[in-house]
Design a protein that fits this description.
single chain, alpha/beta, 8-stranded parallel β-sheet, 20 helices, globular, binds pyridoxal-5'-phosphate
Length: 696
């Protein structure tokens, strides 16, 4: 069934949303797919004859996601391994990509829907499958129209957290099974939800009483610890509360609760490698694609974003990953809701399944160089002249006010006179204020020359890092393997290079560090404008409180002529010919010489403090400031990993920019599908091997 679903969706087998597989997929999509698109119709219009002679077609620059369904599959396998008793109901809101829904439904997942569009989508996609997935309508505040349709479509389980919702449900169907959503302590989570939903302790009893009064059954309890929760302890108190309600509901109201819904919130930025073939390939360098010649199909998803080394950070400080959270929560559930209790345990994971599923690949459409000519001295404005100019402006403004009123007046006796003079005085004050604000912003916008201020390095500005910061910031930047935090003494070979530097790996681990290059004044050298932004796929910066890390994708454009495609793969999936792979087509920065010593001349390996803007005209559309990138040019590509959750789902077309295209790939070989679908219990991989893999 999976093969069939993939064939229907024209999945590219062998790509991945990360590592070598990503580069192959991106290379294929850019070099073959996009280049093969027919010219748009406007090339046939009369005006096209005025295009330059050598411009025969559009430059290839559409932004796109590489969506790796293999990630979703391996996440599912991992879920079953670590949470065997917990049935996942995938939260469709997170990414309603039909391929995700179909794959998860085939693998046996159920769904959490929050609107009729979501449950229509799930039911439509799954209509031909042998299994009709279960749906929980997990929106505590529903529209009546949506709820009526849900009931008609067989959906019974609905969450609620207020009395009006109970009455609404009772008026629609007595067959509705209510699930009480309770408030949780969601501090520390990426997106807190308890500020909007969840019944507080004082309301539990009255709500159960209301449900009883209206003749509805309350079948269980649900909670959500906040989206992107990295702390397993949050589940402890929520589970305790749920247990208390189960007992209260039974003893005081006669409800026999049978459903516990532990919600979502599980992180998904990293994922384990399910594929047994990848487990044995221990020493394969992840970021080095120099040996990928002829390596057509990537076996297994790659774990490029590994958790930081445990010894670098103390246990308490470290953000937890899914496996750690699940391993802590599982015994809590078993203790409070043992298997013998017969309670069905479900969860509503969203980002867990799909965060690492997509990588967004964007192209640079404009570049701005911020270098200033230090020899240029602006003409000075003398105070008297400025005062004259201001006076003239004020007089003009006064005249305008008078002209607007249409009243001719003189000083004597005109009743309007005093009034107008007052109005003009106010206007002058406002005008003066505006001038002041303008001056202030001019000062603010003037380039800060930190050298003149006596700041030579970021250490001078920010102070030397604390002892504990040094070890924390030992993340590498795009293949750099040097320590990025210096001791501020200026000694040692690395001390002049970087102080606090951006680390994508750190962002992946939930830690945000600002890039500060100490060899330049504290301002960005270049600004880049890319073709997706905060109003599109990168809306997660705004709505999901996400941080992203831009990486440069290097492509040797000339190599694309060699691309060939073979359509005769065994299961009808497209596959690249060996001759397609080429070392120099596309390379990542993998060598340590990315970090250049101070004083070295500009080379393509030099990094610059850069700002990345989205394509719209809104100044809020900023993706990153002060990040280190090589000098880019129009047509270069930047990519962002972990872009599967709360990204394309909320992308708008503001300013007329279309959402990024999707290119579906699968990093897991079909030969493993059956084994994968059977789940970890049926797998012959020893636990030891699994652990070895997890620690890589
Ligand atoms: C009710 C409910 N369930 C599940 C989810 C999914 O959460 P996550 O993506 O963090 O797993 C959300 C997210 O907002 C939610 O509101």
């Amino acid at each position: 069934m999976l093969c069939e679903a993939f064939r229907e969706n024209d999945i590219f087998l062998g790509g991945s949303s990360m590592g070598q597989g990503l580069r192959k997929a991106a290379r294929y999509y850019i070099g073959h797919h996009m280049r093969q698109q027919p010219n748009p119709d406007h090339f046939n219009l009369e005006g096209a004859s005025d295009l330059n002679e050598d411009l025969k077609c559009n430059p290839v620059e559409n932004s796109f996601y590489v969506c790796d369904i293999g990630v979703v599959m391996s996440q599912f396998w991992q879920w079953r391994k670590h949470f065997p008793r917990v049935e996942p109901f995938y939260a469709v809101k997170c990414n309603p990509d039909p391929l995700i829904i179909k794959t998860l439904a085939i693998l046996g997942t159920n769904f959490d829907c929050a609107s009729r569009t979501e449950f229509r989508l799930v039911q439509d996609i799954c209509k031909d499958l042998p299994r009709n997935p279960d749906i929980i309508y997990a929106n505590p505040c529903k529209s009546r129209v949506h709820l009526i349709e849900a009931v008609c479509k067989g959906i019974r389980k609905v969450t609620f957290d207020n009395a009006a919702e109970i009455i609404k449900c009772a008026e629609i169907s007595k067959k509705i099974q209510l699930v009480l959503r309770i408030i949780t302590d969601d501090r520390g989570s990426q997106c807190r939800l308890s500020t909007k939903f969840g019944a507080p302790r004082q309301k539990w009893r009255p709500l159960l009483a209301t449900a009883k009064k209206y003749g509805l059954d309350v079948v269980g309890v649900s909670f959500h610890v906040g989206s992107g929760c990295r702390d397993a302890e949050r589940y402890q108190s929520a589970l305790k509360d749920a247990k208390e309600i189960f007992e209260m509901a039974k003893t005081e109201f006669g409800f026999n609760m049978t459903l516990l819904d532990i919600g979502g919130g599980f992180p998904g930025e990293t994922h384990s490698t399910w594929n047994p073939a990848a487990i044995t390939a221990e020493d394969e360098p992840v970021e080095d694609d120099s040996d990928d010649e002829g390596d057509d199909l990537i076996e297994g998803t790659e774990m490029t974003d590994t958790p930081s080394e445990p010894d670098q950070e103390s246990e308490e400080e470290r953000f937890m990953f899914f496996t750690e959270i699940a391993d802590r929560v599982r015994p809590m559930i078993d203790e409070m809701f043992p298997e013998e209790s017969g309670v069905r345990i479900i969860a509503e994971p969203g980002r867990y399944f799909v965060a690492a599923y997509a990588t967004l690949v964007t192209s640079v459409v404009s570049c701005r160089d911020h270098a200033v000519d230090s020899t240029f001295v602006p003409p000075s404005i003398d105070d008297k002249e400025a005062a004259k100019q201001l006076e003239a402006l004020k007089r003009n403004a006064d005249k305008t006010v008078v002209a607007k009123r249409g009243v001719i007046f003189n000083e004597e006796g005109n009743p309007m006179y005093g009034h107008i003079m007052e109005e003009m005085a106010d206007y002058s004050k406002m005008f003066a204020k505006q001038q002041l604000a303008q001056q202030e912003s001019d000062v603010y916008n003037d380039p800060l020359d930190l050298y003149k201020e006596g700041f030579n390095t970021a250490v001078d500005l920010l102070g030397p890092p604390e002892e504990d910061q040094k070890s924390k910031t030992l993340h590498s930047v795009e293949g750099m393997n040097k320590q990025l935090v210096t001791d501020g003494t200026g000694k040692g070979s690395d001390s002049h290079i970087l102080t606090f530097a951006a680390a994508g790996e750190a962002a992946v681990n939930g830690i945000v560090l600002q890039a500060v290059a100490d060899s330049d004044p504290l301002q960005d050298n270049y600004s880049y404008y890319i073709n997706d932004g905060c109003y599109g796929g990168l809306n997660n910066l705004v709505f999901d409180h996400a941080t992203v890390r831009a990486r440069h994708l290097r492509i040797d454009e000339t190599s694309f002529e060699k691309v060939e495609v073979n359509d005769n793969s065994s299961i009808g999936l497209r596959r690249l010919k060996k001759s397609y792979s080429s070392n120099n087509m596309l390379k990542s920065y993998s060598s340590s010489n990315m970090l250049m010593s101070q004083g070295q001349t500009e080379s393509e390996n030099t990094l610059y403090a850069s700002t990345i803007f989205g394509p719209t005209c809104d100044s809020i559309d900023v993706i990153a400031r002060s990040v280190l990138l090589p000098k880019l040019k129009v047509g270069d590509w930047l990519y962002f990993q972990n872009m599967g959750a709360y990204t394309s789902a909320a992308a708008s077309t503001f300013n007329g920019f279309a959402p990024s295209e999707k290119f579906h790939v699968c990093s897991i070989m079909p030969t493993y599908f059956a084994k994968l679908a059977a789940g970890p219990e049926c797998d012959d991989i020893s636990l030891e091997e699994e652990e070895k893999k997890d620690s890589r």
